[in-house]
């Protein structure tokens, strides 16, 4: 059996309990060495075989899984963050299905949650925005035209932009073209939850300059929108003494 496991954003204790138990039991671990913290491999048992998928093709990854399956071994495929976001897992799962190899998926803490925790931030502030747009700039993987940064920027929601740290000047341009003011609050979170984590508060206009100043070129998330300033919000109805909820009677109603 193959378990596709989310490693979490970086800190080795941010993997789920289930994910850690799977790592402890694994006969084979294939981990995404470019982003997964190698400290997570310390959870493995002594005889476990380890492969770094950064140096492998899809075909090679599947061959390792297929061979392990043939020998009745258990494989953990360890992806950074949560595997459902830019994880390239669909193509693996399809290959496993073709071969009749059973698999399941164990979720993880995505880096976009790690980034919010690094900034002690709530993405969805009442009266500021109630939506988070997760997207990326087009790179080697194209982004459909209807999902351009400018078109998403028009919503004024919180945006979390993955995989785009090398294109920040262009990103600023697109965000401004879409309707964000140049001085809209923004942040760069480098290696969220790792020991060398860095957070930089800036504006939409100064994203590129800020990253250059800190020499940040990869492994970062870009957060954009008025919610980044974490002010100007209304308090929640859920915890307002006046309002009743399913669990609590409020003072404002009979
Ligand atoms: N599945 C992963 C994302 C993989 S795509 C997740 O859920 O987080 C890889 C991109 O994710 C990187 O280019 C970077 O933009 C972002 N990323 C991954 N880990 C990060 C971290 N700890 N801090 C900031 N950005 C991170």
TrEMBL record:
The keyword Signal does not apply. One of its GO terms (biological process) is cobalamin biosynthetic process. CDD domains: Precorrin-4_C11-MT. Transmembrane segments: none annotated. Gene3D superfamilies: Cobalt-precorrin-4 Transmethylase, Domain 1 (3.40.1010.10), Methyltransferase, Cobalt-precorrin-4 Transmethylase, Domain 2 (3.30.950.10). Pathway: Cofactor biosynthesis; adenosylcobalamin biosynthesis. Keywords: Cobalamin biosynthesis, Methyltransferase, S-adenosyl-L-methionine, Transferase. Residues 1-207 form the Tetrapyrrole methylase domain. It comes from the Bacteria. One of its GO terms (molecular function) is precorrin-4 C11-methyltransferase activity. NCBIfam families: cobM_cbiF. Belongs to the precorrin methyltransferase family. This is Cobalt-precorrin-4 C(11)-methyltransferase.
């Amino acid at each position: 059996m193959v378990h596709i496991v989310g490693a979490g954003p970086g800190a080795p204790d941010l993997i789920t309990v289930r994910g850690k138990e799977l790592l402890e039991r694994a006969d084979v671990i294939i981990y995404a060495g470019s982003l997964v913290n190698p400290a997570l491999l310390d959870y493995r048992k002594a005889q476990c075989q380890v492969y770094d998928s950064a140096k492998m093709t899809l075909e090679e990854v599947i061959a390792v899984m297929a061979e392990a399956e043939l020998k009745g071994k258990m494989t953990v495929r360890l992806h950074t963050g949560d595997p459902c976001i830019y994880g390239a897992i669909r193509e693996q799962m399809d290959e496993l299905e073709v071969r009749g190899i059973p698999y399941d998926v164990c979720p993880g803490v995505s880096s976009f949650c790690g980034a919010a925790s690094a900034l002690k931030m709530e993405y969805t502030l009442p009266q500021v925005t109630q939506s988070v747009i997760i997207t990326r700039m087009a790179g080697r993987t194209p982004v459909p035209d209807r999902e351009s940064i400018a078109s998403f920027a028009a919503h004024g929601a919180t945006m979390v932009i993955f995989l785009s740290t090398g294109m920040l000047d262009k990103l600023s341009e697109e965000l401004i073209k879409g309707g964000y003011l140049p001085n809209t609050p923004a942040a760069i979170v480098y290696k969220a939850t790792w020991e060398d984590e860095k957070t930089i508060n800036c504006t939409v206009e100064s994203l590129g300059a800020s990253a250059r100043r800190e020499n940040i070129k990869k492994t970062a998330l870009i957060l954009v929108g008025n919610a980044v300033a974490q002010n100007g919000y209304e308090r929640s109805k859920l915890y307002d003494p006046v309002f009743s909820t399913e669990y609590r009677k409020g003072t404002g109603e009979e």
